[in-house]
Amino acid sequence: MNQTPAKLEGWSPDINDPKLLTDAMEKAFDYRGDVTITQRDGKVVEGYVFDRTTGADPRHSYVRILPADGSARLTIAYGDIANVKFADRNPASGKSWETWVKKYVEKKLKGEAASIEAEALE
Questions:
Q1: Residue 119 — φ and ψ, nearest 5°?
Q2: Of the candidates 77, 27, 35, 36, which has an alpha carbon nearest to the alpha carbon of residue 57?
Q3: What residue ranges do the domains of the chain occupy?
Q4: Which residues contact 14 (CB under 8 A, 6 or more apart)?
Q5: Mean pLDDT of the chain
Q6: Whole-angstrom distance, CA of residue 107 vs CA of residue 64
Q7: Are 106 and 99 in contact (CB under 8 A)?
Q8: Who has greater pLDDT, 53 or 118?
Q9: Would you say 51 and 76 are in contact if contact means Cβ atoms under 8 Å apart?
Q10: pLDDT, position 25
Q11: Do 91 and 48 meet the contact criterion of CB atoms below 8 Å apart?
Q12: What is the pLDDT of residues 69-89, one digit of tens each?
């Protein structure tokens, strides 16, 4: 069995087992860095996983990704995923919610623009 490492950076799990694939996609969703997904048709997409839907089986489970190249958001069925690799470097590593709040408050106190509004997910 392919155990989840303590750090996800650079991890490429064996996703041939649907349970391991679902676990990897959950980890990709929680990961704050990019992942590279290789689809069964050979297409490779690098980007940020911002949503996922887990259905009864891989054909009814999907991951939504913001491609790193700026192209349109994609929805990929778990059943179409041949491989997933977590980026070698997580840009959010070592950053926390508390650090973000501290910087937000500092900006507000200085009179700088700071917003907590999120982008609409369509």
A1: -70, 140
A2: 77
A3: 18-92
A4: 2, 20
A5: 80
A6: 32
A7: no
A8: 53
A9: no
A10: 87
A11: no
A12: 999 999 999 999 998 988 766
